[in-house]
User: Fold this.
Amino acid sequence: MAAPRRRCPTMHDTARVPWTRQTRTFARRHVRKVLRSKVLLGITVAWPVLWYFLSVLVFVDVPEGGSAGGLKAGLAMTYGLFGAFTITVAVFAGDFARDLDGDRYRKFRAMPIAPTADLAGRLLAGAAFGVASYVVTIAVSIAHGATFGRPDPAALGVLALTLALFCLIAMAAAMLVALVITKPEHMTTIAVIGALIAFYATGFNGVTPGMLAEGADMVNYVPNSLATRIQIAYLSEDASFMTPPAAPDSAKYLGLLGAYAAGLLAISVLIVRRFAYAPE
Assistant:
């Protein structure tokens, strides 16, 4: 007796795929692509750690018999967010530009895919590497003598929230970059240069506002320096090295960071619907 023929999935079957499953599929797709790139893995792990050690070696004057543990902790948070910014922009902008450039969305549009599931999958994958880069930097700094005191649950919650919001802001901004720069092969270089420009233009992510000739107050309002200064204000044993302006240690600044993330996320949804999934 012949075995029954296996029926190929149809578009009607695909329409039954839940949104969450579509999101997981897109997330796994992007994670696998990054794991195959030695350059992106190097940026995730080695890039912020290298800058951390370079800054400690060149700029930190460790007192005799001391460890400068608080300052090392501040630098670790600074370069942790710097690394998260670099890798999320590189991963997110590179993948999105590559899919646009390769007409891959022409195939996606032929299937009943939810644009928001595509976007959410990309965001989850990018955030995973951003968080990994941040955690590696903090772990290395602790092994190197950084001290964070005894942060309470509220402070740890602020750290997690600012990290998540900042990754979201970086990836949403990366979508705008991908629309302007249509050469995906250059996206990693552009991400690195962009992160460096933002880092130096805001006085080392806002921890050295005194190096800015004027307008130092902006470090409490530009997303990359704002996120860094919030973390240091809540977790560092001594935040006096980054003032003035006053440390952003109130709910108002957390709300501002959340507003940036919400606004850019809304723009990202519009971009995906308009430029990726809109009918031709």
